[in-house]
Design goal:
Beta-Lactamase
């Protein structure tokens, strides 16, 4: 047997166990947070809270770990010999990212952390005989290259759609649709970097039934950690990892250290996600956004998926950068279907029957309708400007240029991402307040469509 044949055992779906002994042979057995395969002869074990294990290894370098295949439930034992501990470098950073993300998600940043990556030589691999009857062999695992022709074709079509997209909304919709059709990623989300607020804003998603406009602060949770570190994060057995982190948190809460812990951050997307793959969207050193996929299958994402999504992420990042640069030079925001409508072609109800109260809060530029949150920050200021003009003079036609020249909106002088903000505003209105819509009337022009009676309140 080889380590590559046991690849499913190292996804973290079923926690691994380590047994060590001191110089007198007194044993100690505990659970491992992470077993990282370096190559066919070496693995690295995460060192966090294993004080007894660390003392034993210092006296006796030989340990045994037990891993379990989450599909066949067959168990295997690896006889290891300790070589060294790494506290920096690529290996340490790769292992620390997963722990850092889980710690942030469970409100234990700085407490639940990787102390070191203990590197071991693999001396022998043994199947635990009699552990199960009739269990499948690890060689029965599905090859990661099965169906590669279909996936390569899918990758080609995704790239073609991204390259043909003339606006940001079309680009993101095409990319996420293709991920669902060709790769089976049913729950995906794209967040763009709002540099002025040091946070990510959800601009497009699939499979969640809403969520556009949701924000993630840099460094918080799985997505925020990837944004801050600019590195790929793939987690299998997510539920088990979170349970482990929460168990440690409960222990800390019962002691003096509990007062310093931060509130747990709710997992964005699927509440019962078992695996996640989060990719930073970068152009050079600049972060454009984050692409995240989730699944209820604990083995949904492997190294093959990570490589493919990384390639697609690069395509999406370059596409976003191209569209935004084009929009800044020619003011090109238009409808996702490319259509251009004149104001007279926009449908208005002859006698509005809906009534809504919209309240604007000046302290954080947030807008609520009938007491329900709608939008905030720059998109909130833009919407309030449009509504105020409509209420004051009955105006419905606007241009991108006038928004850029309006200093009260607080748009950055460079990289204002106006197109992104208009798409976000349009999506939130379509999702939350259909009686108020924004429709493109041509390149750099749009109209405010109001099919209701509105009361505007400013506080």
């Amino acid at each position: 047997m080889t380590l590559s044949e046991l690849s499913r055992c190292f996804h973290g779906v079923i926690p691994s166990i380590i047994a060590s002994a001191d110089r007198n042979g007194v044993p100690n057995v505990t659970y491992l947070s992470q077993v990282h395969v370096i190559d066919e002869q070496h693995v690295a074990l995460s060192r966090q809270f294993f004080n007894k294990t660390s003392r034993n290894i210092a006296e006796n370098p030989h340990v045994c770990i037990e891993v379990c295949d989450p599909v066949t439930f067959e168990a295997y034992r690896l006889r290891l010999r300790f070589l060294r501990t790494e506290t920096s470098g690529a290996l340490f950073d790769s292992m620390a990212l997963r722990i850092q993300a889980i710690a942030s998600h469970t409100g234990m940043s700085g407490v639940f952390r990787l102390i070191g990556a203990d590197v071991f030589e693999v001396q022998r691999i043994e199947r635990v005989e009699g552990y199960l009857t009739g269990a499948a062999s690890p060689a029965d695992a599905i090859s990661p290259t099965d169906g590669f022709r279909t996936e390569l074709r899918g990758l080609q079509l995704v790239s073609e759609r991204i390259n043909r997209a003339e606006d940001l909304e079309t680009l993101l919709a095409a990319a996420l649709d293709a991920l669902a059709v060709y790769f089976g990623f049913e729950h995906t989300i794209v967040l763009l970097n709002d540099e002025s607020a040091n946070r990510l804003v959800t601009i497009s998603c699939r499979g969640y039934g809403g969520g556009v406009g949701a924000e993630v602060v840099f460094g918080e949770g799985l997505i925020g950690t990837v944004a801050a570190e600019r590195r790929v994060l793939r987690i299998s057995g997510l539920d088990a990892s979170l349970r482990y982190g929460r168990a440690v948190r409960r222990e800390l809460l019962s002691g003096e250290g509990g007062r310093t812990l931060r509130p747990e951050i709710p997992l964005p997307g699927l509440a019962d996600a078992q695996s996640a793959l989060v990719i930073p969207l970068t152009v050079g050193e600049r972060l454009t956004g984050v692409l995240a996929a989730e699944s209820r299958d604990p083995l949904a994402f492997g190294e093959w998926d990570e490589a493919y999504l990384g390639i697609i992420g690069n395509q999406i990042a370059l596409g976003i950068d191209r569209v935004l640069q084009q929009e800044e030079t020619d003011g090109g925001w238009q409808m996702a279907d490319g259509a251009q409508k004149s104001p007279s072609a926009i449908r208005h109800l002859p006698s509005p029957i809906k009534r809504h109260t919209l309240t604007y809060y000046r302290d954080d530029d947030s807008i609520f309708f009938d007491g329900e949150y709608l939008i905030r920050n720059v998109p909130g200021r833009i919407l309030w400007k449009l509504l105020a003009e409509w209420k004051r003079a009955g105006r419905t036609a606007f241009t991108n240029r006038e928004l850029r020249l309006d200093r009260s909106l607080g748009l950055p002088d460079l990289k204002d991402n106006l197109e992104t903000r208009l798409i976000l505003l349009r999506s939130r209105l379509r999702e939350k307040l259909p009686a108020v819509q924004i429709a493109s009337t041509g390149r750099g022009r749009f109209s405010l469509v109001v099919d209701a009676e509105l009361e505007l309140v400013e506080r």
